[in-house]
Design a protein that fits this description.
transmembrane; membrane; transmembrane helix; 0% strand; mainly alpha
Length: 73
Amino acid sequence: MDLWRAVDAVESWLVESPYWLQVLILLAVLVPVLWLLAGLIDRLVDGVLGLRRSGAGAGSRRAPGESVPGDPR
């Protein structure tokens, strides 16, 4: 029960704080969490795309910066 009292005390303090302080605390918590989440999603997508590319055959691999036929770059 002591944990619940601590959580309740923090919640009460946060709700009674000025709006600008609530925004700063929110940003201080959310920015790092969302940054880590974005990195995790990026790694997962790279892993899935890497599996698809490796399954497509060795002839489909390109060096970094190498153009693809029909690519307007």
